[in-house]
From TrEMBL:
Keywords: Apoptosis, Hydrolase, Protease, Thiol protease, Zymogen. PROSITE patterns: CASPASE_CYS (PS01122), CASPASE_HIS (PS01121), CASPASE_P10 (PS50207), CASPASE_P20 (PS50208). InterPro entries: Caspase-like_dom_sf, Caspase_cys_AS, Caspase_his_AS, Pept_C14, Pept_C14_caspase, Pept_C14_p10, Pept_C14_p20, Pept_C14A. Residues 44-168 form the Caspase family p20 domain. GO terms for molecular function: cysteine-type endopeptidase activity. This is Caspase-3. It comes from Patella caerulea (Rayed Mediterranean limpet).
Length: 295
């Protein structure tokens, strides 16, 4: 058996073998040469697509999603401010939704920092609705994995999904708390290095869901969804200076603490919601402003 295949609790942890310019080099995990942040010094921020499904075929049994246009407009503004090339698509079919992802995978992203996508629709856990039927999220993401999109390898693929993941309602629990100040967290950028290595096909994805598996996701007909409202507030206030996962923790807190359903039905009145972040990111994400190209 290869000596690096396994070890016991009493064994010294082996060094990680990394392939650098064709040669093997032993590097300790967390060595200073390893950058902490994704390289966001490319010419372009990247493409951000918004799939905004409001109207649905009668065969789906899904109602019109009033208020979703407000969500789409806010997202469009926020991600344009962050430097993305935003493309919005309203009322998209299953064929079009998957086709968009295959198109994105075929583009040359060599001069882009990352890729982003927001999906606003009805849904179930692991699936979202197109206008003409339901579609697994995994099927949409598949074209962006591994070698299928070579110029996005090692770059963040960011998904923000506003959709129900079930029909359960969260009635919340009461909390008595004391508030104490916390120091501001500052992260310095590490020096960038270039290496050639093998990466997991599932790496560098982020999925931020409006709610947890099995639960309902709230949307106001006039103000839009709770999740997108909170996300856009945080991006507007902290988008250029705070790390993305830190921002999403702020979003979770706003949704959890500041929102509560108010309906004329006792069954749905006074319920709560918490977004869910599933991260396969391997570095920090900062949307720092692009430097002006002065010639």
């Amino acid at each position: 058996m290869d000596k690096f295949s396994m070890h016991t609790d009493n064994d010294e942890l082996p060094y990680i073998l990394r392939r650098v310019t064709g040669e093997r080099k032993s590097v300790k995990p967390g060595a200073p040469s390893e950058p902490n942040e994704y390289n966001f010094n490319y010419k372009n921020r990247g493409i951000f697509i918004i799939i905004n499904n409001k109207h649905f075929d009668e065969s789906t049994g899904q109602e019109t999603r009033e208020g979703t246009d407000i969500d789409a407009e806010r997202l469009e503004e926020r991600f344009q401010d962050l430097g993305f090339e935003v493309r919005r698509y309203d009322d998209v079919t299953r064929t079009k939704m998957t086709g968009l992802m295959y198109d994105i995978a075929s583009y040359d992203h060599s001069n882009s920092d990352c890729f982003g996508c927001a999906i606003l629709s009805h849904g179930r856990d692991g699936k979202v609705y197109a206008t003409d039927g339901i579609l697994p999220i995994e099927l949409m993401v598949l074209p962006l994995k591994g070698s299928r999109s070579p110029t996005l390898v090692g770059k963040p693929k960011l998904f923000f999904i506003q959709a129900c993941r079930g029909t359960n309602l969260d009635y919340g629990v009461e909390l008595v708390e004391s508030i104490t100040p916390s120091p501001q967290d500052e992260t310095d950028a590490a020096a960038q290095t270039v290496t050639i290595r093998k990466l997991p096909a599932e790496a560098d994805f982020l999925f931020t869901y409006s709610t947890v598996p099995g639960y309902y996701s709230w949307r106001n007909n006039q103000d839009g969804s709770w999740f997108i409202q909170a996300l856009c507030i945080v991006l507007e206030n902290h988008g250029f200076k705070m790390e993305l996962l830190h921002m999403l923790t702020h979003v979770n807190r706003i949704v959890a603490y500041e929102f509560e359903s108010c309906t004329d039905k006792e069954f749905t009145d006074g319920t709560k919601q918490i977004p869910s972040v599933v991260s396969m990111l391997t570095r920090y994400v900062y949307f720092r402003p692009k430097k002006q190209d002065i010639r």
